[in-house]
Structures are given as C-alpha cells and as structure tokens.
Amino acid sequence: NIGMDLTTYLGVEKFEPPVQIKMDAKLMPLPELVKSYDVESFQYFVDEADFLLQQDVYITEKVEGVNCGFSWNGEKFTVFQRNNAIEEIENKTHNFWEWARKNNIEETIKSIANWFEVHGKERVRTITLRGEWLGPGSQGNYYGLKENTVMFFEIEVNGMPVDAFKFIEVCQQFKLETVPVL
Known about the structure:
Number of helices: 5
Largest sheet: 7 strands, antiparallel
Structural class: alpha+beta
Low-confidence stretches: none
Strand content: 15-25%
Radius of gyration: 18 Å
Shape: globular
Order of helices and strands: HEHEEEHHEEEH
Number of strands: 7
Mean pLDDT: 85
C-alpha cells in the first residue's frame, strides 16, 4: 500500500555514519531538560507538508556535519553530541570542547540565558544551543573549511525550542553563525 512503512519487513535500518572526531572523552548521560536530538523525515508527513506549504515557515539547509550542542543549567556548562554529554579525560582535549573554549561559548550561553530572563521575563533553568560541527574531520568536510566551526540551528529554553524570530535575533546579537536559511 502507498505510504506503508516497509523498513521492518525488509529489515532495513537507518544508516548512521560513524562520527569522525577525536574521542578523547567519556560519553555521559545528557543533562536534565536536554533531550536526544532526532528529526523525522518530512516525507513521512504528507498531510502536514501540504498544510505547511500554505503557511509562512522558517526552513534551513541541513548541513552535513556532526550534531553538537552546549547547555547551561545555572551551575554547570555541558558540551554534548546528539545522544550524550561529553566529559573530557584528564590531559586530553575533545574537539567540541576545544572549539567551545576558543569561541568563549560558556560565557556566551550564560549571557544568552540572562537575555532570555530579561526579555522573555521567564526563569531560565536550562539554556541549550544546538548546532552542526563542520570542518576538517567532520563527515568528509563537504564545505572545504580550513578550520572547524559550528553553525547553530536551534536554541531551547527550559527544554523547549524558541521561535524562529527569537532564534535569529539572539544569534545575530551574540554573533553566532546559523545554518543557511532557505
């Protein structure tokens, strides 16, 4: 039947390309209010797609890199990948942590949390930045970048994504590069 999911019948699994980064770290559980990240393919939601084609929507490019993120809960700064927090091993440096330190992301995310408390007038328990880590050593470096960077695609406050307008406003104000808007 049209629309029938044959993956189980055919024994097909979603291909997850291997992560090609230095793993000089321990993978730990994600912190509270930070969920594992996955997005269902739009092709499985035909009715929703038809509806959204009649709406103003925010659509971005799916860049080819490695999912990464940064979170602040008022006490602890966390660097993570899609399913796990990344805790560095003594005398080792993980690529995501190295990039975060080089780009002062811990201070930036604390400032963003403060911005949301002032402008959003809500208590921020957790602020999360999600992005795609790109460059040498990342999924074949399709973009030919000379050094690694992160392009952000989402900000969450207390586990909930903020709307596209706030996302763009905050990224511009704090000079965070975003994935290309289509």
